[in-house]
Amino acid sequence: MKPGVYDILITDYHEGLGVSRSGIMEYKRSPLHYYHKYVSPHPKERREVDIITVRNAMDFGNAFHTYVLEHDKYYKEYHVVPKMNRVTKKGKEEYKKALENAGGKYLIDAEAQKIIGEMAAQIDFHPEASVLLKDALYEKSLFWDDVDTGLLCKARPDVWNKNFIVDLKTTANAGKKEFSRAIHNFGYHIQCGMIHEALKSLNKQEMTNFIFVVVEKDPPYAVVVYTLNEEDLLLGVEEFKSTLYDMKENYETGQWSSYQSSTISLPGYAKKTEEDLT
Amino acid sequence: MNDETNLTTIDSDGPSGGFMSVSTFDQAVKVSEMISKSQFCPKQFYGKPGDIMICIQMGQEVGLKPMQALQNIAVINGRPSVWGDAMMAICRRSPDFEYIDEQLDSTTMTAVCKVKRKNEPEVVREFSKKDAESAGLWKKGGAWTLYPGRMLQMRARGFALRDAFTDALRGIISREEAMDIKPEHVSRPSPTSTPAIEPIDSEQIAEMVVLAERAEVSLEDICKVANVDDVHKITSASYNQLRSRLMKKARDIEQKEKLKMLTEGSGVPDIIVEAVKVTDE
Fold first, then answer.
1. pLDDT below 50 — which residues of chain A?
2. pLDDT at A46
3. Among B219, B174, B172, which residue's Cα sits nearest to residue B200?
4. What is the pLDDT of residue B46?
5. CA A224, CA A189: separation in Å to the nearest integer?
6. Is the Cβ of A177 closer than 8 Å to some Cβ of chain B?
7. Rounded (5°) CA angle B155-B130-B110
8. What pLDDT, in 10s, does the model give residues A239-249?
9. Nearest-neighbour CA in chain A from B215: distance (Å)
């Protein structure tokens, strides 16, 4: 993939080469895990989901993104099917018929579709979220060569506005504390740092405004808008760049280390502090 | 914001003198903001209008002009303090001041300070090498090693002036003394500890006033929530709760403002690199 801004399907983006946020997170687990998943020449596991339900977090999230951000494409890509029990003979026939009618589109469960509609409605009702998602470029795939390491990297901002970037997230709990933890656990700040670097490299743009629009997947489908503070954005850039430096060394040496042998102790929360003892 | 929030007036007739006349909170905020951006602003106050306002207010209480206050008052190890010379100047300005006499016996290494207030007996305070040793100061290094005589003198002066002119100094100590105080360990009160019922201090009031403005809440409303009729009566116990509520509200307002600014004039970005439509090929 040559560096550039691509208008491609999410599946093609995932299959394209380049270090992504998921790749960085896998590398943080251990270089060996990254190698196994992204570098070694074994056949890639391609996930096949028969019918998307709310339980298939990733596919459900993708469907929701398309519904909200690229609504005109939604019914070209997704085919809604009623609830069916594929263990029974009747259910199997219904499924076969649904596949024929879908004509290659993804099948999505009617219940999941209803939830997507209700979540989207809550975004429309939200005064800030609704404005933030308007008039922008949606789901563009960015591929760029990191200027320091030469490694090809990729990122896919949900909403690319000239003044800011919006990341649309679906979650079980959109509370501030919980989402802050999710930012750390899933490296969302690294994702922002990567987009910052991508726009600098591809578009000569210094973007510092990164916004999360977070929607809960259960009623009342609460919506909240969070702005990532600049300090944490820079931390994201730093984590991304330092991981790339380490990764480059692995590529050059061909050595991909696993977990490091060490002494181990209980986590901090399991230990009594001096205060507990008094 | 309540524009009529009273501050102690700093005007040309008062001890502050000069051209600045600040009588309301809003004016004090503006003056403090202006100073905080000025090249003449002392380094430790640069960009800190809140600290400047409190410092000027504190200086005014002891009779220092605004810029004198900024140059002389500092919070060291949690205590407001001034250099020993400024401390003496504050006391000299008192109408009750009669004289000060300082001596250092270099053989015994003992500093003596005599301070006389009108119609009152002379206050005499000593500070010797022995006192410094028992307080663990003599081998402390820094100024105690370089200028031991001066340090003894400042200690004796500090004690004498504070005992004779408690009213003029209003709790301010000498900076030399403040630097020797061990920083207080701030510990979180345990759930069983008695809630603090004492009223908040002037620094906390000033912080609350600034926060109230940021949170767009009037001081009257804050008093209502705290169930008091005057901001000076807010207790330390309710202060922390009020503070965190005000900070949260202020942050929410600031985020809304930021989002508003971002969305005004927002739109599709100009892409230098053209998007490649792989799906259409």
1. none
2. 57
3. B219
4. 73
5. 17
6. no
7. 55
8. 999 999 999 99
9. 18
